[in-house]
Amino acid sequence: MNRALILLRRRLVGSVFVLLVVIIGTFLLLELAPGDAVDAYIVSTGGDAGMIELLRHRWGLDQSELTRLAHYLWALLHLDLGQSVTFSRPIRDVILERLPTTLILMGSATALSFGLGSALGIYAGARPGSFRDRFLSVGSLALYAIPGFWFGLVLIVIFAVDLRWLPIGGIESIASTKTGLDRAADIASHLVLPVSALGFIYLALYLRMMRAGMAEAWRQDFVLAARARGISRRRIVLTHVARNALLPLVTMLGLQSAQMLGGSVVIESVFAVPGLGRLAQEAVAARDTPLLLGIILTSAVLVILINLLVDIAYALLDPRVGASEAGA
Question: What is the pTM of this model?
Fold first, then answer.
């Protein structure tokens, strides 16, 4: 546990610099993009030169880039993300409304991809070179090659339009008065298709990694020794081979968190799920730079927290990692 705490402290110190780089880099990149929130507002509603000047002053766009960056960093020190131009509300409130939906979507998709992918990888790697091994390997490669948005549209056509088994999109029924377990069941039915579209793509990756890790573990000396002692194949697979092949998957779980968060932008748009991904799309369309900065900052914090948990889990699973960090 002490090794995990030392590792956590080192990672937290490094995370502060990562967030600072993300904030400054994102702010400068958005400033280099042509147009701003006033241009988007005038295009959609119209206005004269006087209104343009008034809006630029009201939203602080008449100040220099460095001045706005300094004001933004000072506000962040007070946990103030600013005001959304699009919603005319505090950005923190807007993000907190959408964040739970994205967390549910990401958590469910991660559990599906990691759990089922690992199980199928163990099933395939238990007998390398067999028919089931080759079938699952080819199937996972084909699944990984499918674009997420196309896979989501196919699921909608089959299960929502043709068969009418599941809702087309959204997070729950419109104007629903359901509460308790009925509401939870309604939300779950709406999440089946987006979670499947997001999770099955990464399921293929975990399956192939687990299968490859088990294929390598079968050639290790400790596995050969276990087979020589007459230990059953089932016990060898679960106790020795799968356990050692699981460690790279834990690392990949942290690395894939950023990609899954990025994939949620597409999936939420396809299924009209009101999460951070769709909010980011709305912020880009309205050139709402403060809101987009808040979304990116929140996403960066999520990815860093997930990787912190993965590092701690890896240090607990493999004591050599924590020992090396403690001695550094």
Answer: 0.80
